[in-house]
Amino acid sequence: MTSRQALLTFTSLMLAGCAATDPGTGSTRGEVITVDYGTVMQVEQVQMDPKYGTGALVGGGLGLAAASRRSGTTQAGAAIAGALIGAMIQKSKAGTADKYTVRLNNGGTIQMVTEHHDIESGDCVSVEQGKHANIRRVSPIMCGSPQSHPDYQEMHEANVEESEECLATKQALLAATTEQEADLAYKKMRAFCEH
């Protein structure tokens, strides 16, 4: 085994080991995703705006559209997809988004703006961060039970896997070059990232 193969094997094992901790991490094609859990304290409807407020994460299609704008001309496909995503979101949600304030299990607080409209105050959620952010409702066990709970670890591993699947659909959406491709990829992203 070459030193490069040994390093790759070690890195893979380290990432796999991280996936079993809280907050957990996973990786999709080399991207590390952290998964934190918390309880939604407040939901506020806001107008879609590229600025969205200082310190708030931007998730879902909004995050992809914003990221593609920031990437400038370095990735033409991402810019095209970002414009298509932005147009679809504006059309389907009448220009509004939800800003979620989440109290994390570790005591911190985080805000996320996304076009999801199905999460409510009191819900237990996972906050997924990597190159892109996501929020989704998860079992109350993840917010109200110790990590020693018999179901906690298995649920955590499933949540990390779902976050990786969500990331893969976001990458596919950014690769779209036509409105039809973007529409199909956006629907897949909503199905994989919001359930």
Overall radius of gyration: 17 Å
Largest sheet: 7 strands, mixed
- Number of domain units: 1
Give the total of beta strands.
Answer: 7
Element order, helices and strands? HEEEHHEEEEHHH
The tally of helices reads 6
| N-to-C span | 42 Å
Shape: globular
Mean pLDDT: 74
Into which percentage range does the β-strand content fall? 25-35%
Uncertain residue segments: 1-29
SSE-based structural type: alpha+beta
Proportion of residues in helical segments = 40-55%
Tell me what the structure shows.
The protein has 195 residues and is of the alpha+beta class. The protein has one domain. It is 45% helix and 26% strand. The chain has helices spanning 3-18, 60-70, 76-93, 141-144, 152-174, 179-194, and strands at residues 24-28, 31-47, 57-58, 96-104, 109-114, 124-129, 133-137. Strands 1, 2, 3, 4, 5, 6 and 7 form a 7-stranded mixed sheet that branches. The longest helix is centred in the last third of the chain and has 23 residues, at 152-174. Residues 1-29 have low confidence and may be disordered.
Secondary-structure topology with pairs:
Layout: H1 3-18, E1 24-28, E2 31-47, E3 57-58, H2 60-70, H3 76-93, E4 96-104, E5 109-114, E6 124-129, E7 133-137, H4 141-144, H5 152-174, H6 179-194
Parallel strand pairs: 3-5
Antiparallel strand pairs: 1-2, 2-4, 2-6, 4-5, 6-7
